[in-house]
């Protein structure tokens, strides 16, 4: 995925889009078509694999490895990180808990650290209300069972009634586990100066 590239859909949208693209329920291809090595058949097979991967991800299971290295893993991790940012915006502790690894650590640009328990407590208290919690310029890089998401975050809202707005760069590290990808480590820059935003 390149910088500035349009954000990928969530796994739910991916499942729907691929489902609509497949001619038969469940992604099955008739036997009369399976012997044809035509480009259209290859595309149907690839669409069926993406659908299977998206369904496994949506169910919380481990995603099967793609036959085209680097495509599906990046899509799944990108969608997962986007889902996590949206959960933070809504103070959705349930979704955050599903995505965060139990030993998760966040290190901020000011040098403070936060655990999974810290972030879930903050979300449940709801003291921070977000108007914006979106990122752009997202890139995803995969190394075996490890993925790193880097993006520019725009946050705007109020913390205990005090307004805030800032942009910062962050890197989120995900690891493939028996239960699927989990967010294990986050690191954020200091807020960017206004003239750099």
Shape summary: globular
How many domains, in number, for the residues?
1
Q: Main sheet: which strands, in order across?
A: 2-1-6-5-4-3
Sheet-strand content, in percent, reads: 25-35%
Query: What is the β-strand count?
Result: 6
**What structural class results from the helix and strand content?**
alpha+beta
> Roughly how many Å is the radius of gyration?
19 Å
Distance between the termini: 22 Å
Largest sheet: 6 strands, mixed
Q: Which runs of at least 5 residues are low in confidence (pLDDT < 50)? A: 1-37, 54-70
Q: What is the residue-mean pLDDT, rounded to a whole number?
A: 76
* CATH class category name: Alpha Beta
State the order of secondary-structure elements, H for helix, E for strand: HHHHHEEHEEEE
Helical residue percent band = 25-40%
CATH topology: Nuclear Transport Factor 2, Chain: A
Number of helices: 6
Please state the second-level CATH architecture.
Answer: Roll
Secondary structure elements and their pairing?
Layout: H1 11-21, H2 31-34, H3 39-58, H4 72-90, H5 93-99, E1 100-107, E2 113-115, H6 116-125, E3 128-143, E4 146-159, E5 162-177, E6 180-188
